[in-house]
Fold this sequence. Notes:
The protein is mainly beta. It has one domain (3-12, 24-200). The chain has 2 helices and 9 strands. The longest helix has 16 residues, at 189-204. It starts with a strand and ends in an 8-residue tail after the last helix. 29% of the residues are buried. Mean pLDDT is 79; it is low at 10-15.
Amino acid sequence: MPALTQSKPAKTQPDTPTLATPQTRVYIINVGANSSHHPLRSVVYEDGRFELVPIPEPTEPDNSNKSACSTSYKRYRDCRAYNTNHPLCDVVPIPERYLDRAVHDDPDFDTMTYGDTLTGRGRALTQVRQGDWLLFLANLVPLDAQYMFKAFHGLFLVGLMVVDTTLSTTQATPIAMDDARLARFAANAHVIAHQAQQEAQQAATPTLTTPC
């Protein structure tokens, strides 16, 4: 289970400044679909606007038990574009075979949350504290007026979160699904996956009964 952070928008009221201080730590995180997720790519348009395409979930969730969590994964057809009122699949080339794939929509700029596993780069996030900055970079590919990718691509700054609160949990110290602290992160992809995994484990555990 990941370390999770919830952030406030970088643009806030004047009485809640988000300027960095000498104590502020800045974490740079590469996100979104890139060349390793072909044919999915995050794009930048000729006018400078961009769309961040989330990566697929590593494994397709098992919906056989039809639980609330196992069926609550967002799909590519559910993702919205940030520059228009259209679905993301209407403004970015997403093959039809991916439309019903579960997406790992993280960071979530609607709920302003981000999570990561406690391995590799995610291990550093265990040190995140209130007021720290999360800078998100993405590999964007230009999309021309004919809805075609161009060869050039590069890293772009696509988002900033200023940490408000954090929540950490591990297999040794799991968070119960009814823990009130999870409510703030309920829509985060890591929480959905964690709760679906707990439900699957509970469903697989046999119930022992004693005959009368």
